[in-house]
């Protein structure tokens, strides 16, 4: 089962135009590379948190009643570790959202989970609650890499979790991996990729490890080790070679690359993630969640990152925002162009310029140079990066912006 979504004309991607991201911040341990808003807790306030996110939703819908009738095309429960949340509370939240908002037919409902056995025991309950896309944070099958990343599972647990997901009848099982880890080799990355495709997932996401403090939301144990010179990451050329190995293995087994770090079987690209890459709107609920709405004026907001501060604000009837940023044409243009160039289908760069009032002609010569030097191709009106161009995506965007 793939999920219905409109096609974005500027990229050709099927992508939700309006989605909802719900952040569940609680974890049993914090991974040393994680900069997300998470809280380590042995006692998770499951019912209190379910009530709180629905109270936040009520507050946001009261502030902008038009959101009630806008068709919701994707819903994503991320974390943290959402698979720590008992299925009864996940069902409560999903039912609460359905009672308050308009759900589009074929809604994609994703939940992130860990491969640990205790999490897998809940999979049938999540499926019964309405989850139809399960994303498992595998990261690696290699004991050495898993230890470096602070992960508690092993390869056998991953295989058991995938089997449990199939038994629970999830239409889509997605697996997430990390490469470029300290101590990791190209041979290990290839072994991970081969073992991943053998499990026959519908979707694979594979990201390079990000450790540098300047691109993180907050310091992490690994970023501090890197700053102190205690951590040696693979050389850049090795990381690029790892990425190419992953692409080759996945492609040879029927998972087409549709975004810099994402591969899927035909029809199974993530409609929710594509929303971010194609300039869609997303309401966000929960601790540390980030939302972006285009009305009444374009803005991005970030919720409080402390669970206790978030819960206190919501229970006192306040919208739990830590910050809000108005987005003008230049900010929207930069995001739309840079995100569109992450997609294999590319983006109609002239149409993006025109939509946000940015000049085309000063950029045309740079586009011609990118094509002439093999960093990009033209796909009709769309500019698409080649594999060589995708490896230097950030540098290319800096020149075009």
Characterization of the model:
With 401 residues, the chain is of the alpha/beta class. The protein has two domains: 18-278, Aldolase class I (TIM Barrel, Alpha-Beta Barrel), CATH 3.20.20.70; 329-400, Orthogonal Bundle (Arc Repressor Mutant, subunit A), CATH 1.10.10. 39% of the residues lie in helices and 22% in strands. The protein is built from 16 helices and 16 strands. The chain has helices at residues 46-63, 87-100, 117-120, 123-129, 143-148, 155-167, 186-198, 221-227, 236-252, 271-277, 307-315, 329-340, 349-355, 361-372, 387-390, 393-400; strands at 18-24, 26-27, 39-40, 72-79, 103-113, 133-139, 172-179, 203-208, 256-259, 262-264, 281-286, 290-293, 299-303, 321-326, 376-379, 382-385. The strands form four sheets. A nine-stranded mixed beta sheet has the order 9-10-8-7-6-5-4-1-11, with helices on both faces. Strand 9 and strand 10 form a beta hairpin. Helix 1 (46-63) runs parallel beside helix 2, helix 2 (87-100) runs parallel beside helix 4 and helix 7 packs parallel to helix 9. The mean pLDDT is 94. Pfam families: HemN_C (PF06969), Radical_SAM (PF04055). This is Heme chaperone HemW. InterPro entries: Aldolase_TIM, Coproporphyrinogen-III_oxidase, Elp3/MiaA/NifB-like_rSAM, HemN_C, HemW-like, rSAM, rSAM_sf.
Structure keywords:
39% helix, 2 domains, Elp3/MiaA/NifB-like_rSAM, Arc Repressor Mutant, subunit A, HemW-like, 401 residues, TIM Barrel
């Amino acid at each position: 089962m793939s999920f219905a979504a409109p096609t974005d004309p500027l990229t050709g991607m099927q992508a939700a135009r309006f989605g909802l991201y719900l952040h569940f911040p609680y974890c049993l341990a914090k991974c040393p590379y994680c900069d997300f808003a998470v809280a380590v807790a042995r006692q998770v306030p499951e019912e209190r948190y379910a009530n709180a996110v629905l109270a936040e939703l009520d507050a946001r819908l009261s502030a902008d009643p038009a959101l009630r009738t806008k068709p919701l095309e994707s819903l994503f429960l991320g974390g943290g570790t959402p698979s720590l949340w008992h299925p009864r509370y996940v069902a409560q939240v999903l039912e609460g959202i359905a009672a308050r908002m308009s759900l589009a037919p074929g809604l994609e409902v994703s939940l992130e989970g860990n491969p640990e056995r205790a999490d897998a025991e809940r999979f049938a309950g999540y499926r019964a609650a309405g989850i139809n896309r399960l994303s498992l944070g595998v990261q690696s099958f290699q004991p050495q890499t898993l230890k470096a990343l602070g992960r508690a599972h092993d390869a056998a647990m991953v295989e058991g979790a995938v089997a449990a997901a199939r038994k629970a009848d999830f239409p889509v099982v997605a697996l997430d991996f990390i490469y470029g880890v300290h101590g990791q080799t190209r041979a290990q990355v290839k072994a991970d990729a081969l073992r991943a495709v053998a499990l026959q997932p519908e979707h694979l996401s594979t990201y390079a490890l990000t450790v540098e403090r300047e691109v993180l939301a907050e310091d992490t144990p690994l970023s501090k080790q890197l700053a102190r010179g205690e951590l040696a990451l693979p050389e850049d050329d090795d990381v690029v070679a790892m990425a190419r190995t992953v692409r080759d293995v996945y492609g040879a087994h029927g998972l087409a690359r549709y975004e810099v770090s994402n591969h899927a079987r035909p029809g199974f690209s993530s409609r929710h993630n594509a929303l971010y890459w194609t300039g869609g709107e997303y309401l966000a609920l929960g601790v540390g969640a980030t939302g972006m709405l285009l009305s009444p004026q374009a803005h991005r907001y970030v919720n409080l990152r402390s669970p206790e501060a978030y819960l206190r604000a919501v229970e006192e009837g306040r919208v739990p925002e830590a910050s809000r940023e108005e987005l003008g044409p230049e900010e929207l243009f930069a995001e739309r162009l840079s995100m569109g160039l992450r997609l294999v289908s590319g983006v109609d760069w002239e149409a993006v310029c025109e939509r946000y009032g940015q000049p085309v002609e000063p950029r045309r010569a740079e586009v011609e140079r990118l094509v002439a030097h093999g960093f990009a191709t033209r796909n009709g009106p769309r500019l698409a990066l080649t594999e060589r161009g995708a490896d230097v995506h950030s540098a290319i965007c800096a020149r075009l912006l």
